Amino acid sequence: MNRIHFIGGEKGGVGKSVMARVLAQYYIDRGMPFQVFDADISHGAMSRYYAEYTKAVDLGQFESADQIVEQAAETGLTTIVDMAAQASRQLERWISEAGLLELATELELGLTFWHVMDDGSDSLKLFRKLLDSYGETARYVVVRNFGRGSDFSAFDTSEIASQAQQMGVQLIDLPGLHPPTMRKIDHYDASFWAAANNTGKEHGPSLGLLERQRVRTWLNKSYAQLDRLHEGFELT
């Protein structure tokens, strides 16, 4: 079964695009074929960093959004959709009016909703809203982004976390990368592979020796989380 991964979190600044970029780099480094749809029109991170794999779509325009399912069904490729902030209403309307949940079953197309969160209370409320929207008709992954928070105890001890566990929702941690290093990567418009490996002027601006090693270490820790998820959950 091929699968569509909607990388969201609804709030701005929680690291949705960073998670999407890490997942794309994971597929590349693991030799797993995939495609990307960039639904974040204002930022377009995936179109910048992974352009060769990415098409832009507008979830507010059904004809544009329809490409996601049509291409996933036609190509059989695992699909990443990088969501914009405050896009859940558009997504829910598109899914509802297209009868996508029923069609996905017919097409044997899996749907996974990723909720990338910081350690603020809004992320808990928004996750509850996500579960209320789709219930047990889809799969979910919660990402505690330690690049956007350090104390997730409010979530860990919450009623919604217990409900999620009972529903089989998967939980992973995205480690934090040294903020100045991440800012350099974004300033250089570099993929995470380029950030970790490019040296010298022939490749354009590059990170320093220890910065590159820092990125490799961060990616390895992130990949360990995704490997664990993939073993029992199937990311493809």
Describe the protein's architecture and organization:
The chain has 236 residues and is α/β, with parallel strands linked by helices. The protein has a single domain (2-177), classed as P-loop containing nucleotide triphosphate hydrolases (Rossmann fold, 3-Layer(aba) Sandwich). It is 50% helix and 17% strand. It has helices at residues 16-29, 45-49, 62-75, 88-98, 100-107, 121-134, 153-156, 159-166, 179-187, 192-197, 209-233; strands spanning 2-8, 34-38, 54-56, 78-82, 109-117, 139-145, 170-174. It has a seven-stranded parallel sheet with strand order 3-2-4-1-5-6-7, with helices on both faces. Helix 6 (121-134) links the parallel strand 5 and strand 6.
Task: Provide a short characterization of the protein structure.
The chain has 236 residues and is of the alpha/beta class.
List the SSEs and their pairings.
Layout: E1 2-8, H1 16-29, E2 34-38, H2 45-49, E3 54-56, H3 62-75, E4 78-82, H4 88-98, H5 100-107, E5 109-117, H6 121-134, E6 139-145, H7 153-156, H8 159-166, E7 170-174, H9 179-187, H10 192-197, H11 209-233
Parallel strand pairs: 1-4, 1-5, 2-3, 2-4, 5-6, 6-7
The CATH class assignment is Alpha Beta
The portion of residues forming beta strands comes to: 15-25%
> Would you count the extended β strands for me?
7
Helix-strand sequence: EHEHEHEHHEHEHHEHHH
CATH topology group:
Rossmann fold
The CATH superfamily is identified as P-loop containing nucleotide triphosphate hydrolases
Strand order of the largest sheet: 3-2-4-1-5-6-7
Through-space gap between termini: 7 Å
Helix content: 40-55%
Q: Cα-atom Rg, whole angstroms?
A: 17 Å
Dominant shape:
globular
Largest sheet data = 7 strands, parallel
Structural class: alpha/beta
What oligomeric state do the depicted chains represent?
A: single chain
Which parts are unreliable, with pLDDT below 50 for 5 consecutive residues or more?
A: none
